[in-house]
Design brief:
Helix 1 packs across helix 2 and helix 2 packs parallel to helix 7 (about 205-215). It is built from seven helices and seven strands; from the N terminus they run αβαβββααβαβαβα. The chain has helices at about 10-20, 35-50, 85-90, 95-115, 140-150, 165-175, 205-215, and strands at about 30-35, 55-65, 65-75, 80-85, 130-135, 160-165, 180-185. It has one domain (about 10-215): Rossmann fold, CATH 3.40.50.2020. Keywords: Glycosyltransferase, Transferase.
């Protein structure tokens, strides 16, 4: 059921996740924040759980004439994007449409990789508990791409933590991770942004400031 604004800002949303994650008793965990908005939710989670905060790069592939509608996503290190075949078919996207968007977003992903990951030593997730954090789920395609990448790197157990998501989006991702933690299961007719009083777009400097605050090197 839609109840309008649920969070003051991304930090408050992250704080709402801490009491849901702490009882899991995860040992030697890593918290990954999906860049860019997810990192601002992940920061208080990492602080509250006293574990490293790490950035994770993923780029949504938006329908050319409706960019906010993601038909796929490209995760760092992936050779190919994860596609939502229903949206691809429903929008009539052909291989050239997909390739054009993918090329553009791959360039942006590489730019962000050079900016955000320069000098950052990230521990291997293999054999460690990993919490992937985003600021909410719409279609869930970005989270799906990131979860598959982290699973492929050996993260175990793998937990997705989000402040808000519709029940249908949560159900669609249940096979991609070991557990999904969500503070508010709710329809989002106004989009994820409509769930926040402050949902400004994070710029590069704000992301870098969050990462500097968390420490440039993870243990």
């Amino acid at each position: 059921m839609w109840r309008g604004t649920l969070f003051r800002d991304r930090r408050e949303a992250g704080e709402r996740l801490i009491p849901l994650l702490a009882p899991l008793g995860l040992k030697d965990a890593l918290v990954y924040g999906l860049l860019r908005g997810g990192i601002a939710v992940a920061a208080p989670v990492a602080e509250g759980l006293k574990v490293p905060l790490l950035p994770f790069l993923v780029r949504k592939l938006g329908v050319p004439w409706q960019p906010e509608l993601g038909f796929g996503a490209l995760a760092e290190g992936a050779d190919a994007p994860v596609l939502n075949r229903d949206i691809v078919a429903g929008c009539g996207l052909d291989p050239d449409d997909i390739a054009t968007v993918e090329t553009h977003e791959r360039h942006e992903l590489e730019r962000r990789q050079a900016l955000y990951l320069a000098g950052l030593r990230r521990p291997e997730p293999r054999g460690r508990a990993v919490i992937l954090v985003d600021d909410g789920l719409a279609t869930g395609v970005s989270a799906r791409a990131a979860l598959r990448s982290l699973r492929g790197q050996g993260a175990s157990p793998l937990i997705l933590a989000i402040p808000v998501a519709p029940a249908s989006s949560i159900a669609s991702l249940e096979g991609e991770c070991d557990r999904i933690v969500c503070a508010e299961i709710s329809d989002i007719p106004a989009g994820i942004g409509g769930c926040y009083a402050d949902f400004h777009q994070l710029e590069d400097e704000e992301v870098l400031a969050i990462l500097r605050g968390a420490g440039k090197e993870a243990p």
